[in-house]
Amino acid sequence: MELPSEVPIRYLKGVGPRRAEILERLDITTVQDVLLHFPRDYIDRSAVVPIGTSRVGESVTIKARVVSVKKRLLRNRSVIIEVRLEDDSGRVTATWFNAPYMYDRFREGDTVLAYGKITMFDKPQMVNPEYDVLSDEGNESLHGGRIVPVYPLTEGLNQKLYRQIVGNAVETHASHVQDMFDDRYLKERGLLPITRALKDIHFPRSWALAERARHRLVYDELFLLQTGMALRRRGIRDDLDGIRFAMPPTVDRKIRKRFPFRLTRNQDKAVAAIVRDMCSPRPMNRLLQGEVGSGKTVVALYAMLAAVANGWQVSFMAPTEILAEQHMRTISRILNDSSVRIAFLVGGRTKKDRAPDVKDVAAGKVDIVIGTHAVIEKDVVFRKLGLVVVDEQHKFGVLQRARLRGKGANPDVLVMTATPIPRTLALAAFGDLDVTTIRELPAGRRPIVTRVVSRSHRHRAYDFIAGQLRKGRQAFFVCPLIEESDKLDARSAEETYDTLSRDVFSTFRLRLVHGRMKPEEKEAVMHAFAEREFDLLVATVVIEVGIDIPNATIMAIENAERFGLSQLHQLRGRIGRGSHRSYCLLFPGSAGSDAMERLNVVASTTDGFKIAEEDLRLRGPGEFFGTRQHGLPELTISDLGRDYDILRLAHKDAFEMVKADPELAKGRHPIISDSVRDKFKERLDLIRVG
Fold first, then answer.
1. Distance, first Cα to last Cα, the chain
2. What is the 3-state secondary structure (H, E, C) of 584-650?
């Protein structure tokens, strides 16, 4: 028999050409696609109750005989179909309005399984119940008397029809799906065979079996993802010849002398890991993550100077001009009076203005190029690019990062993020990267005081902010929207700016910045704020990643519940850069218990990794700082908020398999190879780009 993956969906019983077109909207084109389109939920209809014990308002499943079938025509010419049902305990009428075709669905004496809500209209009835006419007493229903699957569907399909399609697919094709693993492998890991898992995920005989089926299918999905990661890692580490940098103690001492402080223990560990990578003959592919202000730039600069000391060029790419300028100032200050040559390339410079720098980069007269996406434009050619550093890497698309890597011959790559990444998401999205985490902050950084401010205390908070401004401090006021919206009850940046400048803080200097402004306008406002030309900046999240303002000690966030927890933590990281104590004030627009619970998570801890784990649990990977941009394939059954243990096992198993059989040619490995390509297709090409 043909494999389910080879059978077009239109040939499955109950489908045909017209329904096949509808199913294509769900990306279902083969019978195997039906088997792998999993329920989004279940309804427990396993308890069949006697009619006489059911109560008005209850949703119940009953098994009854058809006593009579009647059609009534009302004065307005609408039709009512009434089917009288009875069992040994009582009677109920199943009623359908304006559905004359229902009259021919029932015959007196039929046994019917019906599910619906009991209502009272002169007599007990069920309006538009789901039902199954049982051909004999032993016939099993797909729609009641069991745990019933509920699927994500599209217009033109209903649950009952789709369940019948799935039932046909399971009955005729589930046993022909190729299992990626042999019996011994399954037994060692406590996994169900694939045929049993597919049957029990769609039509589970118990909740325990549904969970076992889900466990097997989650393992499969994450195993295939990690196999793709492992193959990508092998493609970088084993198939490519990298640069073998030399790091004698003299170079280490010379670099460390450049820093006006001692590195923290975490920074030293990060440096040691990066040095090991750089001294290896394989290209480095490392993610460096840490809190805002944890000193990632210093660690990156160590790697950059190590590359320069070996005679190679470095490209450092940041997401915005203002952040690139900040890095330029920091690095130039540390390298003052050194022989290291630096060029600055950003989109704001004219082609004529930057031509000399571009020429020097191509000639090898520049050691470090710092800039924005301008560094990946076609006219920028490196003579000897050895190291690529990408800051705030989640702000870049994967193709941009690939283009930067392509500027050299297998250069080492170091990507950085100040967004703490949950361990599950780190393994899923960056499974092919080595991850280094800096958890401790440099000495002298004072913790930021965070408070959730109720409406009744808002004016007291305003008075406190005004007091800070009178002391010469500065403040951010962040809003989720630019303009007022009828759909969202959120204070817009423009409305907030008008209110604060006209009333609350009328004696202070205020400015407004938002995403609709031109880049040069935003840059000018941020520079003016850094130069203390005004006191309070009303902004949208454009300041989430931005310039250091050591004098800013207040971060006030309107409608704080509309932001993700990690985003709130990122915004909070914009302050606390100076010697003065800093405060983050969260103003909720909703006093709902869920909103307050989320905000209290941020107020209770400054540990960004704890916050990130909670954020992932609450919002899921699709919302976590734009996961789609990472090239992470969409997961159909796995939940990264709850499946870490399965992911960790799948990661271990997949990487060990690829290490032992890099070509995936042994045993059942070709099935795995085909499944990886089929499941992730072109997305897999993006996964490894760090």
1. 43
2. EEEECCCCCHHHHHHHHHHHHCCCHHHHHHHHHHHHCCCCCCCHHHHCCCCCCCCCCCCCHHHHHHH
Q: Which sequence spans correspond to the domains of the chain?
A: 4-41+169-207, 47-145, 218-239+635-687, 249-279+295-417, 449-605
Tokens of 404: 């930067």
Question: At 43, is the secondary structure helix, strand, or coil?
Answer: strand
Is residue 289 within 8 Å of residue 277, measured between CB atoms?
A: no
Contacts of residues 11-16 at CB distance under 8 Å and 24 or more positions apart, as own/partner, are 12/165, 12/168, 12/169, 12/172, 12/173, 13/168, 13/172, 14/161, 14/164, 14/165, 14/168, 15/165
Q: What is the pTM of this model?
A: 0.73
C-beta of residue 570 within 8 angstroms of C-beta of residue 418: yes
The correct answer on CATH 2.40.50.140 for the domain covering 47-145 is yes
Contact (CB, 8 A) for 537 and 529: yes
Residue 41 has what pLDDT?
93
Among 351, 355, 273, 357, which Cα is nearest to 315's?
357
Per-residue pLDDT, 557: 94
**Residue among 282, 289, 526, 543 at smallest CA distance from 393:** 289
Q: What pLDDT shows up at residue 689?
A: 36
Domain 449-605 CATH (choose: 1.20.120.790, 3.40.50.300, 3.90.420.10, 3.10.129.10): 3.40.50.300
Cα–Cα distance measured from residue 280 to residue 236, given in angstroms and rounded to the nearest whole number: 13
Q: Which H or E run includes 511?
A: strand 510-513
Q: Report residue 265 as tokens.
A: 């223990």
What pLDDT is stored for residue 176 in this prediction? 93
d(CA 27, CA 465): 53
Residue 482 is predicted with a pLDDT of 59
Q: Mean pLDDT by 10-residue block, N- to C-terminus, for the chain (690 residues)?
A: 82 92 93 94 90 90 92 86 93 91 91 90 89 72 88 91 94 93 95 96 95 97 90 70 90 92 90 94 87 84 96 91 85 91 86 89 94 85 92 60 70 85 74 80 77 91 95 92 55 84 92 82 86 92 69 93 85 84 91 80 86 77 51 76 88 93 91 84 46
What is the distance between the alpha carbons of residues 418 and 553, in angstroms, rounded to a whole number?
20
- Is the fold of 47-145 the same as that of 249-279+295-417? no
Task: Name the CATH topology of 249-279+295-417.
Answer: Rossmann fold (3.40.50)
pLDDT given for residue 171 in this prediction: 92
Please give the Cα distance from 31 to 3 (Å, whole number).
Answer: 9
Classified as helix, coil or strand, 434 is strand
Helical H segments across 29-144, by residue range = 31-35
Question: Do 644 and 592 contact (CB within 8 A), yes or no?
Answer: no
**Sign of the torsion angle spanned by Cα atoms 466, 468, 471, 474:** negative
| 3 state DSSP class of 403 | helix
